[in-house]
Specification:
The protein is α/β, with parallel strands linked by helices. It contains 13 helices and 18 strands. The structure holds N-(aminocarbonyl)-beta-alanine (URP) and zinc ion (2 copies).
């Protein structure tokens, strides 16, 4: 008679802090022991020569969401979560996106109706707040935070989503009151608007001008302003999808002053550049996202920020649109850069890209990889220690990696519904080969063993970085210490 449901033997386990040889024993979906000679499992995996890592936690992805240009993402909660899990991710936190005038509660219910029957791995929801009415701020948000929607995203640009500074303060104040984390899309709206208009007036409509219209200056200015608003309110923020050294420098400066500013970057800012938007014909549309990819100097800056702790999390910002009339070309075969849905896919390749080119090339170590892709994400969004680590009592969510497996990326190997990958042709070393979700093997031998609806909704606690108790006098503020710890400094 086995003592465990699952035993992962002979692997090298890595967490955000340590790397050690241990067997991992699982019962009733949770890790119950780490050690040697633990006994037997009803199911056993031999992980000799393999790495046993926490399943990735994806903190930024758009699934079954309508874009600001009114285009539906190519992935629904089935294909999006299947794609995630094949890439070693076992938890996703996509968005429930409010349309202006809509109730936030109804929005959340609508997303639940989509996700519940389809998700194959566990999921939570961030809220996108596009209409911070008195009802939303005063009634809906406090109730939703209590129900486990403890983070929301606000936009400083996009006509249908953007908040002005006054509205941003209203949202920050509501977050402060109830201990939520605020994610900020930081780009200067009027700079984009003005540049776009002048480019179009001059006949510059092709995809490459998307990158020109979303300037580094506009990203840096908005990051600076968001930080000032956060500082005024003493409310932590997380600046999402940072693409440029200019924005990163603003964030680093604020962190060095002790402000609770967290930051995220994404694969597109490490592996793509603005030149990709110059590809033949409309092909550049496949690389249009906001902020846009920049250049080699900015890529190096992003790598530095991942290594030195400026960035706490590494997310895909998976925003998948097919390169056809259902997606990138929804406005016609030759849309202007303003009419192209913004976003690139990346939920499946997020971890392999960072593992191969980060850990494999010595830019970050394995523990930092785990922190950036799983542990810090779970901590920031109130899921730790249930998710994001390998520890007794945590959910048995694990990705078993073959660190020597080499494969060249092609879209055919992926499981999304996008039809292309911006990363085609890159040869990566190190891939997840077996994935475990709450103790069940959900991927092995390139095969899915999960059913639609196996994923469970995760109500989330307040982020320890944002909980109201942390808002004391600065010199006795425990959030400072938490922040320093999370930032790895
Ligand atoms: O271009 C992007 N990033 N599209 C997705 C929406 C967002 O702003 O994150
Ligand atoms: Zn954004
Ligand atoms: Zn996004």
């Amino acid at each position: 008679m086995s003592n465990f449901d699952l035993l992962v033997r002979n692997g090298t386990v890595a967490t955000a802090s340590d790397t050690f040889a241990a067997d991992v024993a699982v019962k009733d979906g949770r890790i119950v022991a780490l050690g040697e000679d633990l006994g037997t499992g009803a199911n056993e995996i031999d992980a000799t020569g393999k790495l046993v890592l926490p399943g990735g936690v994806e903190g930024h992805c758009h699934i079954e969401q309508i874009s600001s240009s009114r285009v539906m993402t190519a992935d629904d909660f089935y294909s999006g979560t299947v794609s995630a899990v094949f890439g070693g991710t076992t938890t996703v936190i996509p968005f429930a996106a409010q349309q202006r005038g809509a109730s936030l509660r109804q929005t959340v219910e609508d997303y639940h109706a989509c996700a519940g029957p389809k998700a194959v791995i566990d999921y939570g929801f961030h809220l996108i707040i596009s209409d911070p009415s008195d009802q939303v701020i005063g009634q809906e948000l406090p109730a939703l935070i209590k129900d486990g929607y403890t983070s929301f995203k606000v936009y400083m640009t996009y006509d249908d989503l953007r908040l002005d500074d006054y509205q941003m303060l209203e949202v920050l104040s509501a977050a402060r009151r109830d201990g939520a984390m605020v994610m900020v899309h930081a780009e200067n709206h009027d700079m984009i608007r003005w540049l776009s208009q002048k480019l179009l007036d001059g006949g510059h409509w092709q995809p490459q001008y998307h990158a020109v219209s979303h300037s580094r200056a506009g990203e840096g200015e908005a990051a600076h302003r968001a930080i000032a608003l956060s500082r005024l309110m003493d409310q932590p923020i997380l600046v999402v999808h940072v693409s440029s050294q200019e924005a990163m420098d603003e964030i680093r400066l604020a962190q060095d002053k002790g402000l609770k500013i967290f930051a995220e970057t994404c694969p597109q800012y490490l592996f793509l550049t603005a030149q990709d938007l110059e590809k033949d014909g409309m092909d550049g549309a496949m690389f249009c996202c906001s902020p846009p990819p920049r250049d080699a100097n900015d890529q190096e800056a992003m790598w530095r920020g991942l290594a030195n702790g400026t960035f706490s999390v590494f997310s895909s910002d998976h925003a998948p649109y097919r390169y056809d009339e259902s997606g990138k070309l929804a406005a016609g075969p030759q849309p202007t850069f303003k009419q192209i849905a913004n976003g690139v896919p990346g939920i499946e390749l997020r971890l392999p890209l960072l593992f191969s080119e980060g850990v494999g090339k010595g830019r970050i170590d394995l523990n930092r990889f785990v922190a950036l892709t799983a542990t810090n994400v779970a901590k920031l969004y109130g899921l730790h220690p249930q998710k994001g680590t390998i520890a007794v009592g945590s959910d048995a969510d694990m990705a078993i990696w073959d660190p020597d497996l080499e494969q060249t990326i092609e879209h055919a190997m992926l499981h999304d519904n996008v039809g292309y990958t911006p990363y085609a042709g890159i040869k990566l070393k190190g891939w997840p080969t077996t994935v475990v979700s709450r103790g069940k093997v959900v991927v092995s031998d390139k095969t899915l063993h999960a059913e639609r609806g196996d994923g469970k909704f995760l109500p989330r606690a307040c982020s320890p970085a944002a909980e109201p108790l942390n808002r004391l006098e600065p010199e006795m503020d425990p959030a400072r210490n938490f922040g320093a710890d999370l930032l790895g400094r």
